């Protein structure tokens, strides 16, 4: 199982991040994107392990050896989505072409008052979901995340929109699950990412992109325990100014005897992995897990 992401340090420094944020806010997206090539070059030169993992992943998903141009495109895609978080968080996203598939599922679930889990991944942009849900649709959305991972960047971006930052439920706290339970019972939607394994997670090993990878079982076990439906979402960056958001129903509300819970959530976790593989193949440069995901 791979928990290597927990040991990854944060790349870049605070001053460089602040400079890019300043460019974005004062000069706009077109000017700020001029910083993407040097940022990409910096990571290519300085982030050796991420570069190696990118090359290995791309060879797996593309079905051919990945060259330096492939890795540069991968890192450029990552940097572009980070930059666009500035515009999404500050409501200055009119320059982005965001296309939504399955928005009616999201609205219907919010209007039901039943609550629900939105299960995403580190594929593409998570921020585009928060911008759509909170800023554009005004949905009752909470997000589970580890705020201390990439802490400097997280704090800088959180300062751009404290209202959005307040929707975060920190993972790893003694009351994290209690707060999730409270929000679901209040009819809120709770977003979480289901593709990384933390130290305390129960895991399931699934077929994924030609190998076997570990996935956390927590999200589906939580949905079963809380009796709420699960929507999948993927915010794919398609280059330029375009994002494609996809929502799918993974399962309606689960009301299972405890004896059946393990078998049902196992199958649902496998379906999640299969859908993640589908969208990863649609947008291979959107995969932002720069560590050995298939580590044995």
From TrEMBL:
Q: Which GO terms describe its molecular function?
A: acyltransferase activity
UniProtKB keywords:
Acyltransferase, Cell inner membrane, Cell membrane, Membrane, Transferase, Transmembrane, Transmembrane helix
| TM segment ranges | 218-237
Q: Classify the main location.
A: membrane
Example of a GO cellular component annotation carried by this entry: plasma membrane
Cell membrane as UniProt keyword = yes
Q: Which CDD domains match?
A: LPLAT_LABLAT-like
Superkingdom of the source species: Bacteria
List GO BP terms, alphabetically: glycolipid biosynthetic process
Q: Pfam families per the record?
A: Lip_A_acyltrans
Does the keyword Membrane belong to this entry? yes
Location in or out of the cell? Cell inner membrane
PANTHER family xrefs: LIPID A BIOSYNTHESIS LAUROYL ACYLTRANSFERASE (PTHR30606), LIPID A BIOSYNTHESIS LAUROYLTRANSFERASE (PTHR30606:SF9)
Q: What is this protein called?
A: Lipid A biosynthesis acyltransferase
- Native species of this protein? Acidihalobacter aeolianus
